[in-house]
Amino acid sequence: MIVIRNCRMIKALTEGYDGETADVYVKGNRIAQIQEAGSPYETEEAMVELDGTGKTLLPGLIEMHAHLYGFIFNYYELQCMSEGKIIFGVVDFAKEYLRQGFTTVRDCGSSYNAVATVRDAIEAGIIKGPRLVPCGLIITPTETGNDSFRDLYLEADGPEAMRKAVRMELQKGNDFIKLMVSGAFMNEGGDPGVQIAELEEIAAAVAAAKRKHTYVCAHCHSAASIKDAIRAGVRTVEHGTFLDEEGLQLLKETKDCYLVPTGAVGLYCLDLENKDVSEALYQKSKAAAEIEIANINKAYHAGLKLGFGSDIDLEALRKHPGYEFIARKEYYTFDDVDILLQATKYSAEIMGMGDILGTVKAGKLADLILVDGNPDEDIYVMTKPPVHVLKDGELLI
User: Fold this and answer.
1) Which residues contact 66 (CB under 8 A, 6 or more apart)?
2) pTM of this prediction?
């Protein structure tokens, strides 16, 4: 067993316990009990004790928009790499996420089915890493700029081809589907303000995924693409840059459809020190930044449950630990507690894992991190690596 003694608790992230500090017991892969700090607990099992004094216990963090194959920003260089090098890059990226406290990572597109392969290795106990949730290749209609990521995309045009593409990626053992509904900032010649998938194509992908008891997440920048993705029944709208009032209202009214903003990639594309950002990408990002910030803040203040995604490469994650926390505080203007909720409870619920992850609760999986400080009062605490990370009850850091 493991006990985390005298740790500080955040009420918004804790269920079944109201105290400000606690001793939290972990047995096997579950949280066994949360009780008043210093109170007795009877067990004959050997106990590993962790000192939580002056530290805050949080649920394991959740990243909802990663590309683990993207361990460098230069996607043309990535296309020249072997499958083996991509696999080891995924392992390296996943371990960095774990080091920063992310115990669950949803991958929104990687080549060679690399993330599903690494997921299986982690689940088999061959290597250590976070809980990975992969989609495989990104399904996209034929579109300008697709060659920028030719190893990452699976092109499909028309409802029948969409159904086939969805079935192919799920056949490989992936957990959900990623679909390009609008153009992309990073595709050369791509226009993020244009919808590229028709309503019928999106609906066909959603129906095919639903038959396999899973869902579609939709890359959407343009207002039209956001609205058609919601109408077609996608689970998550990624980015949401040009969200308009009608789209916001649809999100508020539609059950089981959620917005996942990605602030960190916006910050990184405006970083003048980032030599991999082309002048064209910088100008596109700069032109959209003010609009995106206003729209995402509007969605937040409308009370939407937002997922936590960053869309950054490994170099950016290492250079800027906790980058998405910084983005949600500085690029957007979210409250600290709400940012923590987005990175844990809300993302778990959006991914359909809220019954086992996302809060500190007896009976849930013991995905827990212990951080030095009070992140609900100072979110910049999250830019430092956790003191300890547990995943499935195992002390990994």
Assistant:
1) 93, 97, 105, 106, 107, 108, 309, 310, 311
2) 0.97
Q: Domain total for the chain?
A: 2
**Amino acid identity, residue 35?**
Q
176-222 pLDDT per residue, tens: 999 999 999 988 888 999 999 999 999 999 999 999 999 999 999 99
Residue 102: enclosing H or E segment and its boundaries? strand 102-107
Task: Answer whether 204's CB lies under 8 Å from 160's CB.
Answer: yes
156: which 2 tokens?
């499909």
Cα–Cα distance for residue pair 37/6, rounded to 1 Å: 5
* 48-51 and 2-8 strand pairing: parallel
Give pLDDT tens digits for 111-169. Answer: 999 999 999 999 999 999 999 999 999 999 999 999 989 999 999 999 999 999 999 99
Residue 278: both structure tokens together:
């082309």
Q: Are residues 299 and 199 in the same domain?
A: yes
pLDDT, position 78: 87
160 and 219 share one domain: yes
Q: What pLDDT is stored for residue 188 in this prediction? A: 87
The number of CA neighbours under 13 Å toward the Cβ of 14 is 21
Give percent above pLDDT 90 in the chain.
88
What is the domain range of residue 204?
Answer: 61-350
357: tokens are 């992850």
Verify that 197 and 284 share a domain, yes or no. Answer: yes
pLDDT in tens, 362-396: 999 999 999 999 999 999 999 999 999 999 999 99
CATH number for the domain harbouring residue 136: 3.20.20.140
Spatial distance between the Cα atoms of 288 and 241, rounded to a whole number of angstroms: 8
Give the separation between CA 205 and CA 161, rounded to whole angstroms: 9
pLDDT band at 25 (very low <50, low <70, confident <90, very high): very high
- How far, in Å, CA of 304 to CA of 230, rounded? 14
Per the CB < 8 A criterion, the answer to whether 165 and 156 are in contact is yes
The DSSP letter of residue 130 is P
Find out whether 356 and 347 touch, Cβ atoms under 8 Å: no
C-alpha distances (whole Å) from 340 to each of 7, 14, 295, 372, 382 are: 17, 12, 20, 15, 9
